[in-house]
Structures are given as structure tokens and as C-alpha cells.
């Protein structure tokens, strides 16, 4: 199917698909200047969406895809995936710490405002 049909089928935008093509997250065959999207690209797109819902950035999704393509179903792939997931967990820990600081600051500001209102 062509890109417009694929976009409609996946309920997404042409810009999203073009971005994934540029990042090589989707790699459909090309006939002349037209992409031919198949069920494989549909499955890849669904995997990308699922990983995004887990909070994976596109750069890590690309690493997972490359690992899958290179080491599919082997202990090497699982080891690579483990490293990638550990990277994601480090990022989550950093984000959690940042959010905790933000929450603390907001609570402090709230307390100060409540004090002023009580005066």
C-alpha cells in the first residue's frame, strides 16, 4: 500500500511516517519513488507505538530495532535489550528526581502562599 493508505490504516500522520522513514524505524521497499508498505511495516509501526507508550524515546527504539535485526532471538539480542532497558531506567530515575524537585518547589510555594493568605 502507499503512504497515504498506510497513514489512514494506522491512524497517524504523513509527517510521523516521514519522520520514522528518516530515522529508518520504518523501512518499506521502494518502487521507483513510491514506498510500498506491507504488513511488516504495520507490525513495526505498532511496535514503535507500544514502545513509545512505555516511554521509550525514538533513539532507544531505533537501538532495539537494530539489535533485533542483527541478533534476532539470540542471547546477544537479549543482552543488548537489557543494556537499552537499563539506559531507559537511568533516564527514568533522572526524570523522577527532577519531578521530585519540582514538586517540592511547588509545595513550598503553595505553603508560602497559604501563609500569606492566613495573615
Structural class designation: mainly alpha
**Sequence stretches where pLDDT stays below 50 over 5 or more residues:** none
Instruction: Count the beta strands.
Output: 2
Mean pLDDT: 92
Quaternary form: single chain
| Gyration radius, in Å | 21 Å
Report the total helices.
Answer: 5
What is the percent of helical residues?
A: over 70%
Distance between the termini: 68 Å
**Element order: H for helix, E for strand:** HHEEHHH
Shape: elongated
Reported for the largest beta sheet, the result is: 2 strands, antiparallel
Please state roughly what percent of the residues sit in beta strands, choosing from under 5%, 5-15%, 15-25%, 25-35%, 35-45% or over 45%.
5-15%
| Strand ordering within the main sheet | 1-2
Amino acid at each position: 500500500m502507499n503512504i497515504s493508505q498506510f497513514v489512514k490504516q494506522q491512524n497517524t500522520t504523513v509527517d510521523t511516517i516521514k519522520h520514522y522513514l528518516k530515522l529508518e524505524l520504518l523501512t518499506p521497499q521502494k518502487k521507483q519513488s513510491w514506498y510500498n508498505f506491507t504488513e511488516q511495516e504495520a507490525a513495526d509501526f505498532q511496535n514503535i507505538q507500544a514502545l513509545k507508550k512505555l516511554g521509550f524515546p525514538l533513539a532507544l527504539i531505533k537501538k532495539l530495532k537494530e539489535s533485533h535485526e542483527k541478533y534476532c532471538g539470540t542471547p546477544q539480542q537479549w543482552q543488548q535489550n537489557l543494556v537499552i532497558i537499563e539506559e531507559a531506567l537511568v533516564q527514568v530515575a533522572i526524570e523522577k528526581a527532577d519531578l521530585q524537585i519540582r514538586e517540592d518547589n511547588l509545595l513550598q510555594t503553595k505553603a508560602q502562599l497559604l501563609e500569606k493568605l492566613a495573615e
